[in-house]
Amino acid sequence: MLGELFYIFIFPGFVFLINFAWIAEFIDRKIYARLQNRVGPPWFQPVADFIKLLSKEDIVPAASNPKMFKIAPLFALASAITAFFYIPLWKADALFSFNGDVIVVLYLLTLPTLAFFIGGWYSTSLYSRIGSVRSLMQLFAYEVPLFMGILSSALLADTWSLREIAVFYTSHPYVWMFNLLGFAIALVSLLGKLEKVPFDIPEAETEVVAGGFTEYSGRMLAFLRMTLDVEMIVGSALLALVFFPFGLNLHPVIGFLIFIIKILFIISLISLLRTVVARLRMDQMINFCWKYLVPLALLQLLFNLTMKGMFFR
Amino acid sequence: MRPGKMLREVLGSIFKKPATNLYPAQKLDMPDRFRGKLKFYPERCIGCKMCMRDCPTNAITINKVADNKFEAVFDLSRCIYCAQCVDSCPKKALEPTKEVELAQLDKNKLRVVFSYKESQEKPKE
Amino acid sequence: MHNSKDFKIPIGPQHPALKEPEGFSVALKGEKILGVDIRLGYNHRGIEKAAEERTYIQDIYLIERVCGICSHSHSTCFIQAVEEIAGLAVPRRALYIRTIIGELERIHSHLLWLGVAGHEIGFDTLLMYSWRDREVVMDILASITGNRVNYGMNTIGGVRRDISPEQSQEILIALDILEERTKYYIEVATQESTIIKRLSGVGILSREDVLRLDAVGPTARASGVKRDVRADDPYAAYGELEFKVITDERCDVYGRTVVRVKELMESYKIIRQALKNLPDGPIAIKAPRKIPAGEALSRYEAPRGEDVHYVRANGTEKPDRVKVRAPTLANIQAVKHMLRDRYLADMPIVIAAIDPCFSCTDRLIALKEQESATGKIISWPALHAYSLEWYKKQGIDFTALNKKLSAKGLTG
Questions:
Q1: Model confidence over C263-297: pLDDT tens digits?
Q2: Which of A67, A94, A198, C66 could link A88 by a cystine bridge, Cβ 3.0 to 4.6 Å?
Q3: Angle CA C290–C291–C294, to nearest 5
Q4: B117 Cα to chain C: minimum distance (Å)
Q5: Given a contact as 3+ CB pairs under 8 Å, which chains touch A?
Q6: pLDDT tens, B85-120?
Q7: Is the residue at A51 inside a domain?
Q8: CB C141 within 8 A of CB C151
């Protein structure tokens, strides 16, 4: 019992996750800056931003629905953190596990997007409404390839449980290499979930100011930003487990280091991707997802089905 | 058509020094022709007030303190640093310097007076 | 333009996409734009009127500040008009120096535009790189003229500063760097697929529309209209220099991008020629303080398009009338046309594609009383009284405060 509470609140739960989220944001911003030949922020910038936002006034628009407006950020953060407890991190075991938790984690990661929509919609600002509708529209584009990419890996392991995926890939080393195409698809879709360039359409600042976040300020904005950072960690952890499931049966310390390296690798890939492309338009983004990502994901599924039929019966 | 055209350039930047100039820590050299804060040589001034006449913002005032002795008052908050007064002056009593950091919290400090007595500097010529 | 039931979203006067305050009211249906209303005047500074209150020498610096980016364009345009009225024969060396500064300014303006365009389509990397490289030309301008913007280079009858042989070497070295970088940006703009996707087919302005709406500069040239004052009505030293007028047949934002980056290459060519043929001689002749009575219209190809200044002199030290028509004013109507049936996401880049400079464009708005059919212009005291009334109706009474302020002489 005490161990579980420690897991949830201290390590690798809440406290660790939030600190790691700050570090991840710093690394993302620093790499982004260095790739653009800039200096970039100092290491404490994300923490300083967070503390500054906490000390600011919370402004709730008079026309908004205050309950929904206030609850959305907390709901988003809570669901992103909850998803973390189902993912095996550096050993082939997680805090909670049951058959079907892959689906649960994927939907827990969808909930923040929904919360962003609700928060944006109920803040009633014009920019917020356009932004929040955009984030829902975008959801329909990236969600399918993301699910298909992740499930293709689960299919090969013949299980819907993340723990058993980990167990399977640990007992079959090098099989993860079959899923590299799936990783590429999931990574690109993850950019849509994290609302980063080229898929930062919902919060495109030159078009809709800050999209659904326009009316948020103070503590609630701090939580929303924290949600995006935590989502980045949880999303990368999920991708790291599903597509790079190695080093899970080693000594915990070495396993932990490998886990950190995997996450940072995925985060730097995200930074690199968002450096070299321009933002797409909504119609182009949906086109891209359904025309290229989904067929590629289907190809990966087909490949995995064939492999499974041939080797892992 | 190829996505990520700037990829190579971008990756090369990792090993390059950032182009950013860390301003307050690292100061830039102004070019020789820079038009900064003005300098006034009271000894050369003949009080023709051409500078006052040509100044687009009335930032400069020449006051007579005694016979053939003049002082100049600059209002740095009005000056646009065009240095037209330098061109207008027939006796080269005005000179632009390279001084740029002129911001002040106290507005009164923006008024610079070059009084006749204070200036001990001999003209360079 | 559109009825009140539509979903209307304000872009500006304060908006991240706009670098200057300007009001756009966009009627939307989903993401689709039904119509756009443009409201000018948020940044009106009354420069034309102020110019009448100042001497010609003071006006040079005032007119230079019409625009930050094309400061040399405006001051040259104004000075050309004054020199024509006064009948001054400007030394050839001065004309060449004006040309060189004008082209350096075009380089810095176009590189700036490239970065802004990148930012508008969410490509911040392009912004960072093109602005980094723009520093090269900014440094050159600073070392020749003494300032990065608002060069203060022109004076009536010539220029104020000479270009020394060392400086012309400096310029040539900088041009080599810039040329290499520009070639790279041409490659990026014509090959990076996300840029092409975002720019091509956006903001279509056909050749006929350009002629009908009188668009100028790169906006017109990208629709295949060969309209360039440098070639059509050469001023300064352009008549003696050889260059190509870049046009493009794409008629969209992508075409405008291509025209601009290719114009950079022409600018390098022009500067190299001008430096090679730089004639010897004085850089300025003495100009009279009083300009004889007369009037003149002067045209100048600013980076954003044709700039027109009209000056009327009355024989005194001060001009009788100065009229500025900045290129953005000619292009702003085209924006409205270009946005028809486009998406909201295209709005920032379509506006940016004309390289707008709203402060230059802004002019006086005459407020008319709503009810009267003929339209009566409201005077300042009447407007002041009306605003007090209006706020009183909203439940805020400014009368006491207003009395306090007018006692101190702070109002009206």
A1: 999 999 999 999 998 898 888 888 888 889 999 99
A2: A94
A3: 150
A4: 31
A5: B, C
A6: 888 888 888 888 888 888 888 888 888 888 776 545
A7: no
A8: yes
* Residue A225 belongs to some domain of the structure: yes
CB contact under 8 A, C125 and A204: no
What pairing do the DSSP bridges indicate for beta strands C305-313 and C319-325?
Answer: antiparallel
pTM of the shown model: 0.87
Contact A62, A122 (CB under 8 A): no
Number of domains composing chain A: 1
Q: In this structure, what token pair is assigned to residue A45? A: 């910038």
pLDDT score of A265: 93
Take residue B39 and report the two structure tokens written for it: 């300098």
Q: What whole-number distance in Å separates Cα of residue B82 and Cα of residue C150?
A: 8
Contacts 24+ apart (CB under 8 A), C147-151: C147/B34, C147/B35, C147/B81, C149/C68, C149/C69, C149/C71, C150/B80, C150/B82, C150/C61, C150/C64, C150/C65, C150/C68, C150/C71, C151/C64, C151/C71, C151/C72, C151/C101, C151/C105
**What is the ipTM, given to two decimal places?**
0.87
3-class DSSP assignment, residue C29 = strand
Measure A181 CA to nearest chain B CA, in Å: 18
Q: What are phi and psi of C362, to 5 degrees?
A: -55, 135
Does residue A158 fall inside a structural domain?
Answer: yes
Cβ-based neighbour number of residue B121 at 10 Å = 10
CATH code for residues B32-114? 3.30.70.3270
Which residue, among A37, A42, A112, has the nearest Cα to A74 in the 3D structure?
A: A112
Query: Can you give the pLDDT at residue A66?
Result: 87
- Supply the pLDDT for residue A269: 92
Residue A211 scores a pLDDT above 60: yes
**Best of A132, A206, A274, A279 to mutate (most C CBs within 10 Å, chain C):** A206
Copy the structure tokens of residue C147.
């300032």
Q: Closest Cα of chain B to A278: distance in Å?
A: 9
Beginning with the edge strand found earlier in the chain, give each strand of the sheet holding C32-39 in spatial order. Answer: C7-11, C23-29, C32-39
pLDDT digits (tens, 9 = 90+) for B33-81: 888 888 888 888 888 888 888 888 888 888 888 888 888 888 888 888 8
CB contact under 8 A, B5 and C155: no
pLDDT at residue C50 is higher than 50: yes
> Which structural domain, as residue segments, surrounds residue A100?
56-311
Residue A14 lies in a domain: no
Distance separating alpha carbons of residues C119 and C59, to the nearest angstrom: 35
Q: What residues of chain B lie within 8 A of the CB of C139, using their CB?
A: 31
CB C211 within 8 A of CB C221: no
Direct distance between the N- and C-terminal alpha carbons of chain C, in angstroms, rounded to an integer: 34
Output phi, psi for C27, to 5 deg. -90, 130
Domains and CATH numbers, chain C: 47-360 (1.10.645.10), 374-412 (no CATH)
CB C137 within 8 A of CB C174: yes
Q: Residue C62 pLDDT more than 50?
A: yes
Mean pLDDT is lowest, of A27-31, A190-194, B3-7, C212-216, for: B3-7
Question: What are the domain boundaries of chain B?
Answer: 32-114
